[in-house]
Each structure stands twice: as structure tokens, then as C-alpha cells.
């Protein structure tokens, strides 16, 4: 049996090491101890585990660390500390830019090695938690500042997306914005925010990323129109929403807006796609998969790659690692709140599970093209290292090319990071309060049931609270 040259054997010997260093372990698996403690409602242990989780100490994952620290502090009712972390996360997202080193790491290794910048919906959830913290701290003015920043984030996303067919606005955040304005007795801006949220639902056939238009939102808009004297708008939206305004006297103890954060957001895992490069009669390139399900046009010049350097025979097969979301099943499916023998149902307000799946699907083509470009660059480096027929030191060059090929294979990895302590779905309801002490009973049902007792002091005006069930 012919023995491989020594240099080739040495290059092959590096492959197990590379596979160990760049294994396909997902981000969720890397933070498994934290995730398990959080899911079991052991927030103190989860918060302590964050400091020991190596991947979260990496500079590139600073934003994820801040997200999780802020959420744990919120769950432990440390609202000041929570907002310190969330404010730092906010500044990070405002200031972070794609650096040359980040581009190089993403091209030569994989996107998991780049700085995590956050999903668009994660930024809106940051506003939600910051506003909640301020309201718990009795700082409605600071919550109002956060409400205004929701509009800025919407404008920024619209400028970035430039498409009405993709996620470029957030109905839940606009709803939350209206609630905050109402908390500050700013009925005019509350009307505008509620109207903007309703308009998003109406524009999308009364459903927005898995959430049917809430009946409570309809009534909140009509009430705001009534409060501001916009009688024409009140009548117009009654017709548009096919509903009637149910006017009621101000409750003596005010109202409670109660959010229920149920379950956990989906996590990401890695999936593999296989592509071959094809060229049509006009000289246009495209990557196609064996089943013919995907045909992705590819412009090499957009990535500063000279197509004349390419030979289709050398680019016949590519393995692309790409993320996909995995839903975390909800333990509870429905909930009611009982006060003085009166039951109040909770409606969906935000479905982060659907939002995550859909937004990843919306940007599939763009991100897959970037991944293919990354692999082409690696393949060209391998081709450049291969010896020509008349080269001296052919064994050495062949070993280098083999090592590059092994390195490319070992480092091909999907970015499986995301803010994993977000809820699966957020529900809400509005409850009229009596003056003085109100004893509320929250009842969640599903695979089993859970009861949470709430004591709320009715003191007039509006209050906002949240209940969390992570299972």
C-alpha cells in the first residue's frame, strides 16, 4: 500500500484538532447550565452561572451577556440593576459597527466569531423591559423617554429594511408606547401610538407576525380617540375594525395593565445545505442544491472575486452551515385573571417565536449569499495553494492545500446565538381596580395549572405589571 507523503500525513493529523476547536456545539449547548437554572426559575443560580459561562465572557458576546444579566436582574425584581445592564446594551447596539477585523473573522472563520449585534426584535424587547423597569421604579417620566425611543427604533428599522414585505415595524412596541403615554395622561400621543399599532394589523389582514389584532387594543384606540375628542377618527376606526366603542366610567381604583410572559423564545441549531456552482449560457453564475429547491444567483464581483479565476470543476460542491430556529414548547397555553368573581382573559400581544422564525426566513437569501461567498474565498485560497504540474516541492504545497481544505471544513459553522431568556409569547389584559387593596388570582392552564396571587393597591390612574412563566 502506498504511503502518503509525510507533509500530507501531518496536515491530515491536524483535522481532529480543528474539529475539536470548531465543533458544531451550539450556543444554547454552551450556556446549558445557565439555561437550565433559568428555566427552573432558579434565578439566583442562573445569574451566578452567567459569570462562569466562558462563551459569555468573550468580547464578541458582550451584548448577549448584558441581555441575560439585565433579564435576570429584572426577574429578581432588581429593577435599577436591570436597567444598568440594559442601558449598557442599548448604548452597545447604538454604537457597534462592523469593523474590518469582524469582516475578516466572518470570512476566514465563521459568523459565530463576529461581534453579536442583536436581532431587530431584540432591540424592541429591550425598550419593553427598560420601560417596565422604570414603571416599577415609579419613574413614568423615564418610561416616557423610552416610549419616544421606540419611534426612533422603528424609523431606523424602516430605513434599514426598505421593504414593506419584511419586518420593518413592531406592532407590540407601538402598543406598549401607547400604554406608556396613557400612563402619563398624554392621550394625544397615546392615540397616535395605538393608531399606528392598529394600522399595522389592518395592513396585514388583522394579524401581525402570528398575533391577531387584540380586542383590547381596539378599545384602547377608541377610548383614546374619545378622550382627545377625535370623534371622526373614532367613527372611522369603528368601521375599519368592525367593532363598537364600549365606553365605561373610570374605575375608582384605576386600572392594571397586566402582561403575561409565557415560555421561552426559540433557540438556534445548525443545519447543513449542499450547493454546486452552475453557469448558464449568458455567463451568469448560480448556486443550486441537489433537490433543485434553491437557485441562488451569485455576483462574484460584489465580493471582489474575479470570476475568471474560477473553474466550475473546482467549485462543484459546498457544504454551508446555516442556523435554524427550534421552538421551545410552552407548558401553559391559556390564562385568566379573577378579581371579585369577574374573570378577565389575556390576549396575545407579541409572538416572539413566530417573529424569530419569520424574520430569519425573510433574510435567508441575503445571509446564504454571504455564507456562499465565505466558502468561495476559502476555496480560492485552497486552489491557489495547490501545486502546478511542474512545481517543485509538490508534496509541501499539496499538504498546505490539504490543510486549508481541512481548516475550511472544520471552521464552517452557523451562528446559533440569540437572546434566549426572552419569552415565547406575551399576552396582556386590562383590569379595572377597586380603590384600596385588590386581591387578584392569575390562573395558567396547559399541561398542568399554576396559580399566582397578586395584591394590587388601587390608587387611581393606570399601573403596569408583568407575570413570567418560563416553563
TrEMBL record:
Organism from which the protein derives: Pseudobacter ginsenosidimutans
Superkingdom of the organism of origin: Bacteria
Name of the molecule in the record: Tetratricopeptide repeat protein
Gene3D superfamilies associated with the record: Tetratricopeptide repeat domain
